[in-house]
Amino acid sequence: MSLSRRNDELWIEGCNARALADGHGTPLYVYSRAAIESAWRAYDQAFAAHPHLICYAVKANGSLAILQLLARLGSGFDIVSGGELARVMKAGGDPARVVFSGVGKRDEEIEQALEAGILAFNVESEPELERIARIASARGERARISLRVNPDVDARTHPYISTGMKENKFGIDIHAAEALYHRAAAMAGIEVTGLDFHIGSQLTELDPLADALSRSLALVDRLEAAGITLEHLDIGGGLGIRYRDEAPPTPAALAERLGPLLEGRPQTLLMEPGRALVGEAGVLLTRVEYLKSGHREFAVVDAAMNDLMRPALYQAWQRIETVAPEAVPARAYDIVGPVCETADTLGAERSLALRPGSVLAIHGAGAYGFAMASQYNARPRPAEILVDGDTAHVIRQRESFEDLWRGETLLER
Ligand SMILES: Cc1ncc(COP(=O)(O)O)c(C=O)c1O
Ligand SMILES: N[C@@H](CCCC[NH3+])C(=O)O
Questions:
Q1: Is 5 left (phi over 0), alpha (psi -120 to 50) or beta?
Q2: Where does substrate bind (predicted)?
Q3: Which ligand neighbours the alpha carbon of 238 most closely?
């Protein structure tokens, strides 16, 4: 196990969590290299029977060292901005394995992606298609595209992270997509290469994904009958992880479920997992500053909503435990940060034995943790550590006060 409890202390591979907190300071993000690599390999092996490419969703955790180790495994990447493309390339990722999603691609981002030679744009609207065609034509190129269809399935996840219903901003209504494929196939600057969908995140059931794939394959068949053949099918990401007591399907279960639908199909299967690859590989370590009693019992810790936004934004529940036992009675604490917002609660009514100075680990922090962190309240963002066996690599320094005003200018008078 990459994260384990031994002698009632938390270890990340061969590194003791409390020793990491003492040595590097808190708040501190810590990731296990082995956990990330084994999650990627499990995904890859699950789909071994079908030609496929995993395009890791960079948004989940875009730290350079993490992109670098995935690139070394042969991963592709799903990006949603020019900044993410720049990060992938900085980390040694192969642009020919990059797909570009997102509803608001700007001219310069399209130029940048064409220049890099990405695998495909996942086109989310008709005006975007026209824009990509115009820019590619002007460069004397043909842009490879998938249409991202909106299959109108209910992913049965949190409404903020559900993306495949017709009222969502994402993708092109699957009923309108066929006509748009015909238009795209006739455009000078466009090479139609694929079809894409992504129905939501933290999925705990396979039915919605299978449903979305069936609906998409019916469209693929109609396109083929009309002479439009596709090279790849992109089923997006979304497999959930266990935050509390969820039992999300494994990649193997996903492959088994989709296998019969894909049989005999020559298309390469693209997948865009984010959370499932990195989520459970990371913890956020934080130290108790004060215990404060009143109407409720508060443990004021040194991490806050700016460091880990999911609890405040989605009322997400993430497991919190002490990294080593404390010889005091447990109480039901609200774990709160120093930020001046009532929403700055990382966990409510957690039964924990705490003293000032206790170190807590917030689990499931490898995905959408640091990636969504801000400097709100002028709080420097935490350091990130990648543990590899018994070695702890600092892959990002804790920010300094200078980082807080980088790029700002004082007025002369
Ligand atoms: C287009 C797209 N692909 C992939 C992902 C990755 O999702 P997840 O981290 O749930 O696998 C997302 C985020 O939901 C997304 O918007
Ligand atoms: N940031 C979200 C997921 C959004 C997925 C991006 N499309 C989360 O933490 O759950």
A1: beta
A2: 275, 310, 314, 341, 368
A3: 1
**Segments forming the whole domain that contains residue 72:** 33-276
Strand partners, 303: none
Please enumerate, by residue number, every residue annotated as part of a binding site for substrate.
275, 310, 314, 341, 368
Amino acid at 240: G
Ligand 2 pocket residue status of 310, Cβ below 6 Å: yes
What is the rounded distance in angstroms from the CA atom of residue 33 to the CA atom of residue 281? Answer: 8
Note the pTM of the prediction, 2 decimals.
0.97
Do 246 and 289 have their domain in common? no
| Token pair in block for residue 176 | 């309108």
Is there a contact between 270 and 233 (Cβ–Cβ < 8 Å)?
A: yes
Q: Which residues line ligand 1 (CB under 6 A)?
A: 57, 60, 78, 101, 198, 201, 236-238, 272-276, 367
Alpha helices in 91-164, H assignment, sequence order: 107-116, 126-138
* Active site positions, annotated: 340
Tell me, what CATH number does 167's domain have? Answer: 3.20.20.10
Q: CA-to-CA distance for 321 and 363, rounded, in angstroms?
A: 8
CA torsion, ordered 53, 177, 274, 233, to nearest 10 deg: -20
ipTM given for this complex: 0.98
Per-residue pLDDT tens digits for 152-176:
888 777 666 667 677 788 899 999 9
